[in-house]
Task: structure prediction
Amino acid sequence: MKTGMTLGEKVRYLRKRLNLTQQELAGDDFTKSFISQIEKNEANPSLKSLYIIAERLNKPVSFFLDETMGGEDLERSPKIDQLNLMGQSFVREKNWSQAINCFEEALSLCSATDFHRRATCLYNLGGALWQSGSAAAAIGRLEEAAGEFQMAGDSTGLVNTYNLLGVIHAHRDQLDRSVECLEQALELIDKLEVTDVYLRLRILTNLGLGLCSLGRYEESMEQLGRALELSDENTDYYKFGDLQMTLGYIHKLRGELEEALKATTRAADFFRAVGPPARLIDVYVNLAVIYRARQQPGDIEKGLNCLQEAEALAQEHGSDKNRANIHEEYGRLLAAGGEHRRAIAAYEAALVHQGEPARRAKLHLALAVAHQSLGDREKAARHLGQASLSLEEFPAGRGDKDLAELYSDLGLFYQELGDVEKANQYLARSVELYRSLR
Result:
C-alpha cells in the first residue's frame, strides 16, 4: 500500500474498514453522490464537512489533511488500540513493567499527527510510570500527553491529565505546581457541557487538600465544601477520610473546635471502616490535639484514650513519625494536666523517633518548659541550647514560618529565664523571618 494517500483514498479506506456504505457515511448531512465524489478526489469538502466525516470515521481532521500519512498508518491503529488494552490489563494486575512495555510499543506505532492515540498512549504510560515509582519520568510523559490532548481537541483527556499531574506533584511536595495543575483541570471541566461528576469530585478534593497544604485555608474550605456536596449527591467517598481530616484541621486553626471534632470523628469512622490503619493513627492524634485545645471537663482523659488507640495500632502499622507524634501529644496532654514529670518522659520518648529538625526543636522547647515548671532551670537551659542546635539543621529556604515561630518561642523563653542577650538575638531573627514572608 502506498504511503502518500490522498484525502479521498483515506475516506474510502476507512469507510470500508468500518463496513459503512457511502449512504451510511453520508447520513442526513450529505448525499451518497457527494461521498463518492470525495473518494474519487472529484470534490473537496469544506472544513466543517470534513469535521463531520472525520468524526464518523473515528479520526482527527488532521489525519485527513496530512498527505504524508498512508495506509500503513491505518493498519497500525488496531494494533495500537490492542496494545493499550493489554497495557491496561497489566495495570489492573499491578504488573507495571509489562504495562510500560505495552504503552511504549503502542506509542512507537503512533504517527506524529495521530494526536488522540499519542495522547492516550502517553497518558497511560505516565500513569504506569507513576505507579511503578518513576514519578519524574511520569511527569514528563504526562506533560507530553497534555500537549497531544490539546492538539486532538480532547478536553476530557486534558482534564484527566492535569488531575493526575496535580496528584503526582503533591506527592513530591511540589505543592504550588500541584495546585496550578488542579486549578487548570477545574477551569477546563467547568467549561464542559457534559462532565464526569466523579472526575470533578476528585479534582475538587485534590485541589482542596493542596490549598490547605499551602496555607490557603479559605480557598481550601470552599473547594472541599463543593467536594462534599458532590460526594453526598453521588455516594462516592473518594479520599473522604483525608477530606474530613483536612476540614477538621482547618476548623481547629480557626478555633472552631466543635466543628473540628465532628469532622475529625467522621474521618476516624471512615478509616476504621475502610483503612488504612496508618491513617487512623494520624486521626487519633488529631483528636487528642482537639480535646487538649477544647479543655472541657474530661477532655484530657478523652485525649489520652485516643492516644492509647493510636499506640496500639502503631505497634503493627506505625512508622517512626507516627510514634514520635503519639509520644509528643502524650507529653502535651500530660503537661496540660500538670503532670510534668510524666510529660518529660513522653517528650524524651518522642525524641527517639523524631528525625525532623523543626519538630526536634519544638520537643526540646517543650522539655525546657516542663523542666522550668519543675524549677530545674539548668535542664531547661540545656534543652533550649539543644533546640537552638536543631534549628541549625533546618534546611535553608524551607519552612520560614515555622522557623520564625520557633525563634520567637525561644526568644520569649530566654526572656523568661532572664538571658536578655539571647532573647533579643532570637526575637530579632524571628522578626526578620516574618518580614521576609510578606
In short: The chain has a mean pLDDT of 87. Residues 407 and 426 are 5 Å apart (CA to CA). The first helix runs from residue 7 to 17.
